[in-house]
Amino acid sequence: MKKTLFIMSWVLLFVSCSDWLLAAASPTQGLVQGSIWVANEEGNSITVINAGQNNVAATLTGIAGPHNLQVSPDGKTVWVVSGHDSKAVMIDAATYKVHGAVHTGKHPAHIVVSPDGKRVYVTNAGDNTVSVIDVSSMKTVTEIPVGQYPHGLRPSPDGKYVYVATIKGNSVSVIDAIKNAKIIDIPAGEKPVQVAFSSDSRIAYVSLNGEDAVVKIDVEKQSVIGKVKVGIGPVQIFITPDNKHVLVANQGTEKKPSTTVSIIDTGNFSVSSTVETGKGSHGVVVDPSGQYAYVTNIYGNDVSVIDLSTNKTIAKIPTGNKPNGISFSSFASPVSSTPIIQLIIDGMEMKH
Length: 352
Fold this sequence. Notes:
The chain is mainly beta.
């Protein structure tokens, strides 16, 4: 009996130590510093996630219908669009206070910040324009006509262009970022949704929601040079920092949600891996170190964390209702003592 108890004690000790070692070696503990920002469109809220611990640091409320958001290049501020109020709102990542708000065009969808942090671009799906906002003055300097129903957009890393995916135009509108003018519409395919650029600005990748595919655009030639099939209903797209892979979130539909992210090898332009994530994979971002990807699951109300060394989902983090846009900040936003923070905009609480 004593011998049996002795053996059981050692087994329990071994299991406890093993659990401790696994926890200590967990890839989420301390290897990635920063925060993940998530726009919960139907929850009228923003979830801020602690990247080091994979837990919620704060929930910000008060922005009606936040469809998309984007962290500034320095990581210190976050821009988010209110689809209901047609506003672009600038938030301090350290204090969760609002710097200001700027009116946009009708039904703003996506928002991006220029590589130098001086300008902000917003797609206005309701009037087929892109608003250009000057950050220093917090004013819209111009609205640029683009293709029909503009949605996702990205600036080229060299700052020369802004590529705009126009869903109903079946094209990518190219904006000259110096002249603030559209210079061409590149035919892309059926229902282009979002864009990703290689770090040298030579190649753009565009998700085609209507074709379950991704196309490759030569920026100099201004034409499509390749296409690859991915999962069902691809939406957002993001390239890894080393330019070796493009991640595509496959949403599917609400009745038949897809649950995967397709990982494309940029070398041979083919799908090298398919990762199970969550219900209705929608938004995707990769941390600057290239270790982890974060995916919003719009029908699951959570964010999946993918370990890119194994291409497996290692965690899920709860968010608000219908998480949509997602962005990563290397700045570690503080954990709030107040679980829910009401944003104050223009001196007043923003109602919805």
